[in-house]
Amino acid sequence: MKKALSIILAFALLIALAAACDKKEDPSPSASQSASETPSASASASSGVNEFGWNPDNIREQNFILAHGMAPENVVSRCYHEFCLLVEQHSGGKMKIEEKIGGTLVQDTETFDALLDGQVDFIHSMGSYVSPTVKDLSPLTIAGYYGGNNWLDFAYGTKDLVGQIYADYGIKYLGALYQGTSVIACSTKQIKQPDDVKGLAFRASGTWVSKTVEAWGGAATNITLPNLADAFQKNTVEGVVTGWTIIGGWKIYEVAKYLTTTDITEGFAALLMNGDKWATLNADEQKLLEYCGEKFMDKNYALTIDACKDYLEQVKSEGLNEIYDMPSDVNQKMIEIAYSLYPEMEAEGELGQKGLDLIKMLKQYNGIS
Hints:
alpha/beta
């Protein structure tokens, strides 16, 4: 009997030891092991981020309005249309932008006020139109603010500072619009050097564009673009410094025989968004628009380059004009004369530190000490 009981006890002990071993071989995860082996809530959320940097699941259904005064066939209109397509494409059709163009809602001179009032969400904005309000933007509004050959590098390099300047006025800056290089159109003679501008009435828009024309020796006259061709025909103006998008798109070459091509970048323009509307977007939606703003700069640069070539070929084929290519040393002289305005701009005391920093940056890009 005792022997049998001993066997039973020994067998029970073996069973207990086996159970204990099984338990050690299959332990429950500790708190630290759970954190490392089980995806956390934040990691699960970030797993939805796409290759562009935002989570498509966080993009909401939204409608916006973009407005400007350019005609639908103008390359500027096509550039902004590309932005609208980019936003719709990358949002999976959730974010849609209605285009109010050709002045159907507001003219270009009115778009800035419409943006500030929240009447529209996005605009095409010429720097010369807004600099009376956004003072620190003034350095970008002289004719000849950039005369280099790498505009995209310039646009990306100045983006942060220009964005800070607009942000001080409750505006989101999404990117710059390339408008090609400037052409000097004149109805009376070929402009080959700054002295050739002396005594001529030149169309100009904005304070510092006008002052640039005056620094070259011309008399600045403020005329709206829709009235420019008529002003040439009536001899109200004799010249203008503008881009191929205006020379070709507005048929200025038909009323101004002499055209001078330059390496001076045409007036600064920007894609702007209402700051209050921007603030209603979540982080993923903001990343999406930032991305589309940069792609807008890339696309509009390529589109405008092609359009300017087309305009030039069109003008040449019609044979109405004498075209002169300004040498690089004369281009630089034109820019240096324009930059002589900066001391006056600084002396007025209306520029803040950001405006002063912008002048320094522009001088560096143009090789001016």
